Amino acid sequence: QVQLVESGGDLVQAGGSLRLSCVATGSIFSIGAMGWYRQAPGKQRELVARITSGGSTNYADSVKGRFTISRDNAQNTVYLQMNSLKPEDTAVYYCEAPVDYRTYWGQGTLVTVSS
Description:
By secondary structure, this protein is mostly beta strands.
């Protein structure tokens, strides 16, 4: 059974950095574009960044220049490097990916940025 497992969420002060990881486990033939989403309390889930299997990326305007998404195809892993964190980045961050043409979500990892 395929699972996406995130890690790296923590409590950090404003201006700090965190690196999130998401690994796909199980029987996997192919993984398409992988994405990071976030959901803050009382708000809808939103796309933060996405990366294709070829390495093309796109970002939400609110994180451009601060966050960097990358992936290791050999390890079925996607990363999100988050720098210059702001209190408004506080949210549960979710990994999403189509694995063998079926969409999977991780369980989420909490990022809290204190002012």
